Every structure is written in structure tokens, then in C-alpha cells.
Amino acid sequence: MFNAKAYAAASATSRLAHTQIKRRDPTPHDVQIEILFCGICHSDLHMVRNEWSSIMPTVYPIVPGHEIVGRVAKVGPAVTQYKPGDIAAVGCLVDSDGTCPQCKASLEQFCPNLTLTFGSPDKHGTAPVTYGGYSDSIVVDERFVLRIPSNLNLAGAAPLLCAGITTYSPMCRWGITKGKKVGVVGLGGLGHMGVKFARAFGAHVVVFTTSPNKKDDALRLGADEVVVSRNADEMQKHASSFDFILDTISADHDINAYLTLLGRDGNLTLVGAPAKPLAVAAFALIMGRRSLSGSNIGGIAETQEMLDFCGEHNITADVEVIPIQKVNEAYERLVKSDVKYRFSIDMASLKSE
Ligand SMILES: [Zn+2]
Ligand SMILES: [Zn+2]
């Protein structure tokens, strides 16, 4: 084992602070990565504050972070795909059983025995739970390490590992191609990636927002139209016309207002997670054979496919790069949606701790 620098929270009410953690020495199949950037995902904040205690109670101390980009420092003798010096990435998963039907279908994110990048029991026994990317290094099995195309800005590439795959995967599943009409509800970390992907797929993109002042930014990001969702007339103009709507809102909202905008066989996919159950009007689904579904990140192969797609289309997240010392302030701003559109921590800042 070796010592790594990290930022951790000691309890649900503690600030994140500098600490030292143990990382395992690379096993034959492991890649040791020096972390360069780590994106801040809203789920980091939920887990730090134990806000998902009913589903996944947080084990403290917690080292969050699952949007990791870095440089390979060391590899085990059986590693074939990576060598020291390579740029590599790690997303939300670091292991799975590899044998269940989900893993066999390359959908490791649904494996009942998956290991999340932070907060899952550490089967190597280095620590009680896995520690994430708010750290200067991480050691991960080669099968869960990803490649970043060389043309991409690394700070902006980090959020692709969660926000990127979360929005890319459902668009692939629902066959978004040139000529389809796609709606994106909410223009935050997820929404802004949804706009970029829908645009790159050649779709006609409509952004729904509650804030009229986001209009210019939505157009700059690639939207063809922007609808202020509080304006019933504007909404009505789009009735029964969408092939697909990506709903990124994690606050309570009227889902039926969007379902009725879908055309025949249209689909609305939820990627936000409102705490309260949403009330769905059956008629909104029955009429037009519409469907409502959810989606959660993507498997490892699809995540690599997404990164390669981003390389071809030069897609990264719009990020505000911060030193790790500003992470607590960034969390406060995240709660107020005061970021365009994702924080990316420059891990070089951890060296001074
Ligand atoms: Zn995330
Ligand atoms: Zn499995």
C-alpha cells in the first residue's frame, strides 16, 4: 500500500478537508493513475451530505469523485492496454463480477455486484470503502480504465465520465439521428451535455428552461430553439411533435407537460432524480403510445464509444476549473446552480497541501 493525498468529509455535516488515504499497490491487472482533473458531480454532494441515506447510506470518511482524468503512473505486469505516460480516465465504476447477465450484455452499471468508484465496499481490503477522485492518485483494474482522445481538453473531458455518458447513452438507446426532434429539459451539468450530443447526432434540438436568461447560452451550446416552460402558449406550439425528450430536472416538476409534447411512440427519459414521486397522467402515455423511462450512466464499452465520439466531434463539457481548496465553496454554488456548467478540480492544487 502507499499513501495518497485526498479531500474527504468526516461526517454529513463536515466540510471536505485534506487527509491522507491508503491506495493498494497495483496488482497484475491494475493501472495506477496520477489524477490531473476530477469533475464535481451533483451525486458527490448528495453522498457527502448523506442525502441518499435510504438507498445508499454514506460510509465516512468519504472521498467523492467519479469524473477522473489522469496520467498512467504504473501498470501491473498483466496489463496490456495501458503504459506509463498514457492519458487515462475512470468513471463511476471500478469493478463488477463480469459473469452476470448484465455484465455479459456490457451493462456493468446494472451488475448486482458492481463496485462504485467511491463508497462501495473495497474488495481489496485497502480501506472499508472505495475512495474516489478527489485525490492525487487512484488504482483501478485495467478493464475499468478508459482512453481520452488526444484532441480533447482534459479539464473539460473529465465530466464526460458521468454527465457525458448519462446523456449520451439514452440518446443512443432511443435512436437519435439526423432529422429527429429532441427536447432537453433543464440546462445544467447534464442538460448542457444533452444539447451538445443531440446537436452532434444531427437532431433538431429544443431546450426547455424556466429561466429566459439562459436562452442565449442554450443557442450557443447548439439548441435550435428555446422554450420557456412556464409559458403555456409556447409549450402548446410543440404539442405531439417530439421523438425524444431528455429530462434532466432533479426538482419536483410536472412531467405530463412534457409527455404531451411527444409524438407517436415518442419517449421521455429521466436522468434527473427528483426526491418526490412524479405524478404521471395515464392519458399522457396512452395517447400516441408514448413511453416514459429512466437511464443510468452506461457500460464501459459504451463509455469508451462516447469518449471516441467526443473526440471525433470535439465535444467537452463547459467547465469552471477550480483548485481543490475551493471545493466547499463550489458545493454551495452547485446547490444554487451557479456554475456554467460543471466544476472541474485541477488536482495539481493538491500538491501544496
Ligand atoms: Zn456523477
Ligand atoms: Zn455483473
Word description of this protein:
The chain is of the alpha/beta class. Helix content is 23%, strand content 26%. The protein has 11 helices and 17 strands. Strands 3, 4, 5, 8, 9, 16 and 17 form a 7-stranded mixed beta sheet that branches. Helix 4 packs across helix 5 (189-200) and helix 4 crosses helix 10 (300-313). Bound molecules: zinc ion (2 copies).
What is the topological layout?
Layout: E1 2-8, E2 17-23, E3 30-40, H1 42-48, E4 68-75, E5 87-90, E6 93-95, H2 101-104, E7 115-116, E8 137-141, E9 146-147, H3 154-157, H4 163-173, E10 181-185, H5 189-200, E11 204-209, H6 215-221, E12 225-228, H7 232-236, E13 242-247, H8 256-259, E14 262-270, H9 282-286, E15 291-294, H10 300-313, E16 319-323, H11 327-335, E17 342-346
Parallel strand pairs: 10-11, 10-13, 11-12, 13-14, 14-15, 16-17
Antiparallel strand pairs: 1-2, 3-4, 3-8, 3-17, 4-5, 5-9, 6-7
Helix pairs in contact: 4-5, 4-10
The protein binds zinc ion (ZN) (2 copies).
Mean pLDDT: 97
Mind summarizing the main beta sheet?
7 strands, mixed
Order of helices and strands: EEEHEEEHEEEHHEHEHEHEHEHEHEHE
What gap, in angstroms, lies between the N and C termini?
A: 21 Å
Beta-strand percent range: 25-35%
The distinct bound ligands, ions and cofactors come out as:
zinc ion
Q: What structural class do the secondary elements suggest?
A: alpha/beta
- Approximate helicity band: 10-25%
Structure annotation, total helices: 11
Low-pLDDT residue spans: none
What gyration radius follows from the Cα positions, in whole Å?
A: 20 Å
Overall shape: globular
Q: Tell me how many strands there are.
A: 17
